[in-house]
Protein: Acetyl-coenzyme A synthetase
Amino acid sequence: MSNEESGTSEQTLSNLLKEDRRFDPPADLAAEANLTEEAYARAAADREGFWAEQADRLSWETRWDRVLDWDDPPFAKWFVGGRLNAAYNCVDRHVDEGRGDQVAIHWVGEPVDDERTLTYAQLKDEVSQAANALAELGVGTGDRVAIYMPMIPETVVAMLACARLGAPHTVVFGGFSADALASRVDDCGAEVVITSDGGYRRGAASSLKPAVDEARTKTDKIRKVLVVQRTGQDVTWDDDVDVWWHDAVGSASTEHTPEAFDSEHPLFVMYTSGTTGKPKGILHTTGGYLTGAAFTHWAIFDLKPETDVYWCSADVGWITGHSYLVYGPLANGVTQVMYEGTPDHPAKGRWWDIIEKYKVSIFYTAPTAIRSFMKQGREIPDSRDLSSLRVLGSVGEPINPEAYVWYREVIGGGRTPVVDTWWQTETGMILISPLPGVTRGKPGSAMIAIPGVEADVVDDEGTSVPDGSGGYLVLKEPWPAMLRTIWGDDQRFKDTYWSRFKKQGFYFAGDGAKKDDDGDVWVLGRVDDVMNVSGHRLSTTEIESALVSHPKVAEAAVVGATDEDTGQAVCAFVILRDEAGDGGEDIVEELRNHVRQQIGAIAKPRQIMVVPELPKTRSGKIMRRLLRDVAENREVGDVTTLADSTVMDLIQQGSSGAK
Ligand code: PRX
Structure:
């Protein structure tokens, strides 16, 4: 793989690999660690046996009779014949085992002092009520339910209520637009949407319900909308469709008997960006997913459910929220914090206040957040008592060594191991990560595959590269929480993940990586047209389609340019239609808002350049590498494969005055 494809310059790479700081696990943590070195060998000797042991952490109504059915790859079945209920495992089981009074969720609203605590017993009652209410609205086993919510306890309750009924949920991030919601609802055929009037963000009530109303004008699938009242803001109401949560759920019985479902019963569909314009509905099923989420959460964070207080700052609208805020932590019966708002409201240091107040011991967040705290300086966290912390996690994008060391030193007081966890929406669970009681941490490296997982870095032919070399990140063996398919599109599932190394039968992750001289993995970033902005996945094509849907735009090309704060930033190049003239003074702002309206605020380009031409090869393919050079203010690279090599001069002249 060339550096051009991975988007990483040779210089950055060699700087990274010169990193020689090492951090040993703290002796006390190592002595009591959930997993020790021996787990790697044990799992390698009997991988299926190892995963069966992990599945035993769950409560099964019927035990499986086969661990893995890989007879028809790439379609895996795990714990074949087993039956269980995911919600029972996340809630009822803890109550049945006498832990009903333990706090499940310390919920912290954005307005200061707006807080709520739910024990496992209370969670069980609410989930049962919500399941009864959904059943009353006609939701049955197998029916899809869309959830479009802020970070409030009802969101978790809604997900678990769906799981309890065997109704796969699809959670759509609250920052996505009505269009994005409608297309996801349409794709998976959800007839019921659960939403709220709004939520709090940066000190103000932001609305959600109007987007659902608008989505209903774009798809005719939605039959009922269940609305949680969070902010009390005005909402428009359709008596035939809209139902208040407090009426329907509030009046429902707290008695609900969970039914056991097949281990392969669909649990949820999570949409994520791919290389084409249409988001992919990643399907996760019940037994394998829950096993993977629960085991990794326990092992990688060295979780002691009786004493730890855990906090994952991710939004439930992403896979991290699914696996490490809902299913993993609740299956393990830990006490956790859930926070509604932004890190800097009402003031910088809000996160550290929360850690201090609840004595959070395990904290999981993203490098982009860490970098923004670094900018604010260490005085703010230094003025809080963060001594409860014992393990820190990072996810979503490569963590640069400086951010890793700052996180460990300033937030973790120099005591805490940092687990840099590599995984994806598709993998459902963390696959490459240090183990806090075992690994000698290297800032910037996700280290090696966890026990039970076979990852490697291979070249174009699928051959494992020697230590010290780079290539593509692959997974060589199936794992329990792997995606089962793309909703409604088995062919796309095969083409996207399993065709690149078909002969070898490897899963192609879409990431470039390098093995250092010790064989440890450094994930470098995507090798396809997927961008990673603040740890969120965005597709270049999806944003290009949004841009060309604007009447003034003739053509558009989008690239991810390196950005100090967000990892990558969206940069767009557009050619306007002749009749649009120069587009008018506000054309750039108009187009940025158009993208926001089409997809959501996270997709809004940082920069839009109006250009007369786009660089294309003779076969008409846009050469994004050259556009990335422009976006990153670099000298433009080799232009010899362009159909017209003067185009780059035109673009550079045109872009010099761009915003
Ligand atoms: O490029 C990798 C990057 O995020 C991608 C997966 O994005 P998504 O499905 O949205 O899931 C994000 C949360 C799991 C990967 O293909 N990525 C994720 N974690 C890391 C990472 N890159 C480097 N290091 C990581 N720890």
Remarks:
- The chain is about 30% helix and 25% strand.
